[in-house]
Description:
There is one protein chain. By secondary structure, this protein is of the alpha/beta class. Strands 25-24-26-27-34-33-32-29-30 form a nine-stranded mixed β-sheet, sandwiched between helices. It starts with a helix and ends with a helix. Zinc ion binds next to loops.
Amino acid sequence: MDLSRTLAGIGAALLxxxxxxxxxxxxxxxxxxxxPSGGGPAPVPGGGQTTRDFGNGPERNEIAALDDAxxxxxxxxxxxxxxxxxxxxxxxxxxxxxQNELPVWPVNPDDRSIKLxxxxxxxxxxxxxxxxxASDRVSAEIVGKSAGGRDLYLVTVTAPESAAExxxxxxxxxxxxxxxxxxxxxxxxxxxxxxxxxxxANIHGNEWEGTDGALRVIERLSTATDAATRDFLKRSxxxxxxxxxxxxxxAGTRANGAGFDINRDHATSSQPESRAVRxxxxxxxxxxxxxxxxxxxTTLIEPATPPHGQNxxxxxxxKHALPNALGMEKAIQQLGHPETTAADIPFRDxxxxxxxxxxxIFTPMYAIYQGAVGHTVEIPLQVNNAAYNNLPVEELQRRAxxxxxxxxxxxxxxxxxxxxxxxxxxxxxxxxxxxxWAGEPSPTIPDGFVDGxxxxxxxxxxxxxxxxxxxxxxxxxxxxxxLISHDVRxxxxxxxxxxxxxxxxKGTYLVDMHQPKRGLANVLxxxxxxxxxLVPQMYDISGWSHGLLWGATVDSxxxxxxxxxxxxxxxxxxxxxxxAPRGRDLSLSLRDGNDVRAVNELLTRGVKxxxxxxxxxLVPAEARPEASALAKALGVRFTAARGHDRGTVIEPPxxxxxxxxxxxxxxxxxGFVVQPVSTAILNAGFDLSAVDTLIVSSGLSYxxxxxxxxxxxxxxxxxxxxxxxxxxxxxxxxxAARVLPVTATAGRxxxxxxxxxxxxxxxxxxxxxxxxxxxxxxxxxxxxxxxEQRYGTTPLVAGHWLPTDAGTNGPAQAAxxxxxxxGVTAGGGHAVLFGTEPLFRAHPKGLYAPYARALLWTAx
Length: 860
Ligand SMILES: [Zn+2]
């Protein structure tokens, strides 16, 4: 029997026990230590380490983010749209090599790679510079900067090409995507197109050896003198993003410098590291890609278990992914290390749900939508976290050497697979894009299509004929620019039109689903699916719909393409305006994160703002120049204030925040100035007296406060200080500090997805979207509060949320229950408690403004 499978089973059983034991009780009143920890334990496939940390790991609820230069620098981007125009693209009109002298970074003796005997970040540029000098097969360039400002390198290894030859390769690559039928007929393309393979290394900063293994392969390819290698490079282009996470490589962290897991960010693109590799995969259109990770005890090589993403052309994927994985397994066996005698191939070895490829947030899954056969590879031997600190250096370096061997062997094997099967890989990439253009349904895959393919592997989506996105809001513009930056084609109607009984104005955006990357378009825009009943557990988020969570109206037309002439959109049209006669006071409705950003910018500039309700801000007529500038920069719309509106003055809110890194990032995106706090910071005597509102969602435990700090918190609350909480940490604080008289009940810790909500309150609930996002959801019972939002009657639209074995704490129990409540504290302050996840990983942009309204209300 396969050992890994046994271990996976044991891991799953332990997990199930832990999940049932843990997060299902109501929040006890007094002792937060016993209260519901929302974040259930992570599934541990293979019985080894958790390599796909669940829900961003403990950081999400237990560690408060500190103010961080990386976050500040990044969030200066604000919520403005993505910028496809400045994204990296393949250089035109140049042959290969395209060599660049990479800037060399200062020596950093604290680089965590050094202890492992691996290459520190500061030696990568010198190494690549030397390789370029030594070989005309190697080109290196910078394709972006990390959150912490470090260079992201792309290496291309290929036989030299003249400018004309490189241009022909570009034309062929475009032809494959733009006109697959013509590409299929083109014999010179078939003979001459260089097989593109992309290796992404070190996306998790403390999973180091992908970088070292890739560099070994680059070096071999660039220096080998044998005919086979020379011929291989005439037929191939090997692209390597040498480290996708230099901040984490240096610091020995999974996350980048802004605290984000980049391998969860591909559908959101909030981080520069994920945007850089998105641009690389679009520009290079690889047939095969590997994402090198660690450490699973036994080497793990995808393809994954079900549920499989329902928008893949899965037949075209699995027919290559499985044999490629088998080839990689053979390659590590041939290394001869006792630790590499076999690999875990989840598709072959694991139970459904143990290692799925459902969400498009992982690099290889994202890459499938861009035409690649994508694989996560997990090298075996742990050298990070506790092992890094506790094992002898010799043992760490021994492990790192084996891991490097495994990384290099999997890369070599994948190159061999791609080269050997270049004809069918080309034909199948062409076929993927052809089906998209033709609007053909994805074919039903028969049992046994590859070894082990059965009914449990069969997933498919019904593609609508078109999506329709009314223009004019910052949310619509943001979504459209996001789609375009992901190479989804968007057009705009040149005149008004009707569809499905609805009238749409000229300028309305259309996503014609007859397009090469329709799978990607659909996986972003569709609602998604409730998969709770299909598998017992999932690895990470199971719902993410941009159509439902990003604040834009997204309609779909199942069968009809609107009869209207269109123009191609390369950038969403501006949406900002000041629609008011000169001399009139202005009104701004807080419907989008950019509206909030505009308010914060005006406050920063000393403009005297007032508000008439939680969602409406008045701007004095004399601030019109500032308003005009913000309308232009942020796409927000000011209208004329009604003459009799007076409102109450808004002071710049003083916010203390015990929040996770993603929340801190989202708060800064909206322009809030926040002072990070935590249990430790309050215990060190942080002065709360000037604070208007305190956010508690991560790393602040009332019971862990010193008596003095507790007294300070009590005094803050007694004095009318505001409070906003999120999740279990927030609910615990609410109970322990007696903020609002409600109790929280927790759904299963791993429950997540898109839910329906009904809006009732005038703060969070005022005109908010009918959908929200949950992760370890809570609901509230008690009296004396206002219900802002309730879970819908059948709350889960898309995602995974099971009840306990006893049938409790599931979506049926949450139905109709308060998801967000507001109220007045005993001290007279305002408080709002969230059982939902409005800022999760900076993703659900449409939930930002409701959250911000809560923040502004509690600060007032
Ligand atoms: Zn990883």
